[in-house]
Write a structure and sequence with these properties.
By secondary structure, the chain is an alpha+beta fold. Helix content is about 40%, strand content about 35%. It has helices at about 1-20, 30-35, 130-140, 145-150, 155-175; strands at about 40-55, 60-75, 85-90, 95-100, 105-110, 120-125, 180-185.
C-alpha cells in the first residue's frame, strides 16, 4: 500500500534524525514535520450492507434485496497537526513525556467486496422473477454505492476505530522519537 510505504520511509527518516539528536532531547517541531508527511490509515472495518427495493401492486407485491460485505477504511490526517498539537510534558520517573493531540479519525474509503453478494427476490402471484424480479434486483444493485456512503458505524465499531487509531498513532510517534520518551496520544 502506498500509505504504508510512505509511513515506513518517514519512520526510517525520523529514526535517523532522532539518532543524530541527543537521546533524551526531542524537538516537538521536528516530530510535527515528520508526522505531517502522512495521512495514516489506522483501521479497517469489514461489515455488510443490505439494500431492498420493493413495489406494491394488484398483481402481487415484489421485494428484491442484495446483501454484500463491505470494507470501510478510517484514518487520521496527520498533515492537519498544529504546533500546539505536540508538547513535551513533565518527566515521569526520569523519562521525558511527549503529549500528542490528533484529530478524530474519518472515513477515508469505502468499498464493496465483489463476488460475495447474497440476493433474494420475492414476487407476487402475477409477477415473474425474470422480468419484474430482475428489474428490482437491478435497482437494489444500482443503489449499493449510494447506500454504502450513508452507512454508519455501530457504537462498538466506533469505539474500535477510536481505540485502534490512537494505538496506531502511538506506535508511529514512538518509532519517530525512540524508546527513551514516553508517548501519550489523545484526541483534540
Amino acid at each position: 500500500m502506498i500509505n504504508r510505504a510512505r509511513e515506513a520511509a518517514a519512520a526510517t527518516e525520523a529514526m535517523a534524525v532522532v539518532a543524530m539528536a541527543a537521546a533524551e532531547r526531542v524537538d516537538p517541531l521536528q516530530v510535527l514535520s515528520l508526522a505531517r508527511s502522512m495521512k495514516l490509515v489506522t483501521v479497517e472495518i469489514v461489515s455488510s450492507i443490505t439494500v431492498k427495493r420493493e413495489d406494491d401492486s394488484w398483481r402481487g407485491d415484489i421485494e428484491a434485496s442484495v446483501k454484500t460485505p463491505v470494507r470501510l477504511h478510517y484514518g487520521i490526517d496527520l498533515s492537519k497537526l498544529e504546533p500546539e498539537s505536540i508538547a513535551i510534558g513533565s518527566p515521569v520517573d526520569g523519562v521525558g513525556v511527549l503529549v500528542v493531540r490528533v484529530p478524530r479519525p474519518t472515513r477515508v474509503a469505502a468499498e464493496i467486496i465483489a463476488g460475495e453478494e447474497v440476493t433474494s427476490v420475492d414476487v407476487g402471484w402475477g409477477r415473474t422473477r425474470s422480468r419484474a424480479g430482475e428489474y428490482y434486483l437491478g435497482l437494489a444493485r444500482r443503489d449499493l454505492p449510494e447506500e454504502l456512503q450513508k452507512l454508519t458505524l455501530t457504537a462498538e465499531q466506533q469505539k474500535q476505530v477510536d481505540r485502534e487509531s490512537l494505538e496506531r498513532v502511538h506506535e508511529l510517534i514512538t518509532q519517530i522519537v525512540g524508546g527513551n520518551i514516553k508517548v501519550v496520544v489523545g484526541y483534540e
